[in-house]
Amino acid sequence: MGKAFALASLALLVLLLGCIQPPPQSEDLSGFKDCGESQECLMEALENCGQAFATQRNSDNNVTTQAKTVVYGLDGEKCRVKFTIEDIKVDVKGEGGEIADMIASLLKGKEMVCFLPSDEKASLNNLDKEAIGEYCSGPLVDVMKMAENRQP
User: How far is Cα 91 from Cα 78, in angstroms, rounded to an integer?
Assistant: First the structure.
């Protein structure tokens, strides 16, 4: 019962957050290197802070995600990078399934923008919670913080 209540509370918070965010707009990435699904290409772009974008697909346990990373290049002395969850599917049976589906649908389209110092660029995928809070902002960071605060 407590777990279901916590998930329902998180879902409500995510729903409220989702209601106040503008819908994502497509952006012009002409002139950016299209890395497709190549992690190697994306990591090279991050190391050089060169304009590029890539799509990542990941399946872990019962969660399948598709995300897009865009490296915009230098903004001052920091590398500007945006990470967007394009799609997320959760395969949970039983009591938590509906709530998990609702949370997944609310996460879809959420993004965070990070301004990474030169020593953090190549490790975007390995940023810990503190680094994300320090370098990144946006609806996805807000959801991550809410989820962290809701864990027992």
Answer: 38
